[in-house]
Write a structure and sequence with these properties.
Number of helices: 25
Radius of gyration: 33 Å
Strand content: 15-25%
Shape: elongated
Number of strands: 22
Amino acid sequence: MKQIMKKLEGFLELGGIKKDIVLLVISGIALLLSIFKAPGLPFNPSWAAIILCGVPIILEAVIGLVTEFDIKADVLVSLALIAAVCIGEDFAAGEVAFIMQLGGLLEEVTVAKARAGIEKLVHLTPQTARVISGGAERLVPAEQVQVGDRLRVLPGETVPVDGVILSGQTSVNQAVMTGESLPVDKTVGDTVSSGTMNQFGAFEMEASRVGDDSSIQRMIRLVQSADAGKAKIVGLADRWATWIVIIALTAAALTWLISGEIIRAVTILVVFCPCALVLATPTAIMAAIGNATKHGFLVREGDALERLASVSKITFDKTGTLTCGTPKVTAVRTAAPEYTDQQLYALCAAAERMSEHPLGKAVVSCCRQECREPLPETTDFLMVPGRGVSCLAGGRQLLAGNEEMLREYGIEAPAQVMQEAGAYISRGCTIIYVAVDQKLAGYIALSDTIRQESAETIGRLKALGVEPVLLTGDHENAAAAIAAQLHIQEVHANCLPEDKLNWIAAYQKQKEVVCMIGDGINDAPALKRADVGIAMGGVGSDIAVDAADIALVDDEVKELPHLAAMSRRMMVTIRHNMCFSMGLNFLAIILAITGQLNPVAGALVHNAGSVLVIVNSALLLNWSMKRS
């Protein structure tokens, strides 16, 4: 019996959406021929719809009952099909099969496409490592590195395993792990994680966590398992199928016993078929997805909008989501009377003109847009990894770098200047100090900038009763500064990928329905674990988009409130569809019991009900959120 069931299951899995469309076209033509009684046919054309659309429904119902005793809507449909065929009402049977096949097609269209995020994440795994042994360097596969091995990492290479820097200075791009928009300066004693990118200086490190224990491998496992507990929405018709079957069979049996007319019993089974109820959810979802597409959202999971409708917390990554993800100059302050702010700005930009560091590039770009001073010519450019840059301008030595660079060159900074700079640091800014001929000339503050629409977006989400939460890999000062400007009360900083995932899991344990919005590779586990994951499609990584249920194609976060409100409207439409279809069914049952409806008329009632459900769902296509 099990072998037979497996063969039947294999038959049902053949094809897909294209097969369903072909079956519907053939069945639709057959039903039209049956209505107009096409001459010359040796059989009723409705049998084409019964065989092509009805038989698979019956087989699936039998498999569900035999293997798992699973009663779904297809059980009642199968009973109605068989009963209608037994008394010769072929058109009624074909029409019911056609409507159910249409509902199945709509559901299939809303199913998510296969996602390749895991494969892309695996490609980030370092393949080789430079192991130093006995004074010699050899290239080995990364999986062969052992704890305690001494490794060398050159500029532009990916860190192969987790470890601690033994010698050298550098800047490391940690976006894959923390989402930080700026490289982090590293020196002796600092830790580095596998999968992060060494940008400038070479360094040697000691391996501390290797193989499956490394950071990048742990994140791959998180992404693979994070959505295991994500609830799947059960269709309304299937959710109530057991009760529908019991009521239908009871009503049909009693009517047959009391009236003695089997046609009335069959009519009850036909009109009790949840055709409109089956269409209630997928048609509304399809219309809502069409609406979302107009507002820049690509809905990748069919049931994502159902889950979004009940979201109570929405967690945001900071960099690239609420902010632009690129540093901008926010303040220029001189510490020497011989320089104006504009002159200091030009000196710093001149020193950074040949730098490849994102901070240096930001200074040069902003200076060209905002500063009227010409940039002096420079020579003898030198980049000090993890510290800053040095050059000569008109015979004067220019230094632009961090506080460690000032100390290494023996440059003293007045306490008042350092206190003022510290105030900017406490607000999440990064400071570049500028020195001329061993004397501090001033400093420039840079920070990530908030998107113009972020504040309005947060306010509108709060008005919907959704509580915003900030989950970021940035340090506390930067996170707190952004949260204060956006009026976000709950903030969690210094979050690694597993930290974000754990915070979402903790909210879910408190019965919160959580939506996560992010853009980086480090957000992928959280996007998977959240009840709904929304990725920034423009600035976001491919892996984040693949891990999410919904992608915001043009990065317009101002559309998020519309999506949240529209998902709730969609659920209202589904409930309206459900109530209407059930009401119509009960009315038709009363008419069937009293003998005023025959099976064919009952099938036509189904048509009318299904059309009205589709029309009501279609109203979602142009629905828009009212702005207060």
